[in-house]
Specification:
Layout: H1 22-32, E1 36-45, E2 51-59, E3 65-72, H2 86-106, E4 119-124, E5 128-134, H3 150-166, H4 188-193, H5 197-211, E6 217-219, E7 228-230, E8 239-241, E9 248-250, H6 252-263, H7 266-291, H8 297-322, H9 331-345
Antiparallel strand pairs: 1-2, 2-3, 3-5, 4-5, 6-9, 7-8
């Protein structure tokens, strides 16, 4: 929804908001019914200096706190890995437009099995976007993790299975036509920098394999461990997901491969691959039975299982061009990618 804030006059303006337009404060008060914003705590800065995420504590209204995601596009960014190009800037602009569409038009379709923040307000302008979102910490998802237990991984796979089932075959209007931040068409600079010649030559074929996937859904597009918020219940951890800048159409294996690569070492990937794929697909079948009962689940599973290594190779292609010394470039990734290239060549 878009809130009309022209008649709201804030009682107080916290220090964080003073340099901004007063309409940001007005938007928050209008969206929540609060009397004032008592305090503002910066949670994190956005990638390459494109804004900040702030927790606002409120007085009065329907909630005690909200999350403000304030995107302010800079004149020129300072990219952590040196990718300061107009193409990079345009991609980021598009990603924030996509995220605004996601929260405004799609997020409400997620249920408790694929929990996301509720969208309270969206105000978007040419160079500035304000998202007012429900506070997941206040909703019981206050734990962030840098490493994952097997139960944590299961909880995230539960979320992915539910999300993929919910949006299977649906619209991607306003989102990325091909979800994920490493999609080949948006990363020509990284492809040109890729020193692995066989992988560079196979890149288009890998992309086409994924594009030809019959069963398309919406994918999160950046489903790393850091983008999952955990409940405090260690016995039965639940999760919610954040950061939907790269949500769009795709094969669910792109999310799965990327997620597992974000929290497992190469030896763990090798050892746990079969059992974690089995777990994900068992949950996906359950969710499809509830949300998409007309779907041929057996055919979907057969197709997606056959694309798991392709999805892994697709991200590996991006990573080797973007950051050749990255810790995620390991023997497991190389083996899967070599297998895919051999298959494509034959």
């Amino acid at each position: 929804m878009t809130v009309d804030v022209t008649t709201i006059v804030p009682m107080t303006i916290p220090r964080y908001i003073v340099p901004m337009h007063a309409s940001i404060t007005n938007t928050v008060l209008a969206a929540t019914g609060a009397r004032e914003i008592q305090s503002a705590t910066v949670i994190q800065s956005l990638w390459s200096g494109y804004g900040e995420i702030v927790r606002l504590d409120l007085q009065g209204g329907r909630c005690a706190s909200v999350i403000l995601k304030h995107i302010k596009l800079p004149e020129a960014g300072v990219h952590p890995r040196g990718w300061n190009t107009s193409r990079s800037h345009e991609r980021k602009i598009r990603s924030y437009q996509v995220e605004a569409h996601w929260y405004r038009d799609y997020a409400r379709q997620c249920d408790d099995s694929c929990r996301v923040p509720r969208c309270l307000a969206v105000n978007a302008a040419a160079d500035e976007t304000v998202l007012v979102l429900s506070d997941l910490d206040a909703a019981g998802f206050a734990v962030r993790k840098e490493s994952a237990t097997i139960q944590d991984i299961y909880a995230c796979l539960d979320w992915l299975a539910s999300f993929h089932a919910r949006f299977l075959g649906g619209s991607a209007d306003g989102l990325w036509e091909c979800g994920s931040y490493w999609h080949l068409d948006t990363r020509p600079d990284e492809l040109a920098a890729l020193a692995d010649v066989p992988l560079r030559q196979a890149a288009a074929g890998i992309d086409q394999e994924l594009a030809r996937c019959r069963f398309q859904t919406l994918i999160h597009g950046d489903a790393k461990l850091a983008n999952f918020c955990f409940s405090g219940d260690a016995a039965t951890p639940g999760v919610a997901a954040v950061d939907f800048q790269y949500v769009g159409r795709g094969c669910g294996m792109k999310d799965l491969a990327y997620f597992l690569g974000s929290c497992l070492r190469d030896d763990e990937c090798e050892t746990l691959e079969a059992s974690l794929l089995d777990y994900y697909f068992s949950r996906l079948r359950e969710q499809l039975a509830q949300k998409q009962p007309e779907t041929d689940a057996a055919s979907l599973e057969a197709e997606w299982r056959g694309l798991y290594d392709v999805a892994w190779a697709d991200f590996h292609r991006f990573l080797k061009g973007w950051s050749p010394g990255h810790w995620k470039i390991n023997s497991y990734s190389e083996r899967l990618t070599a297998r895919v290239i051999e298959r494509l060549n034959s």
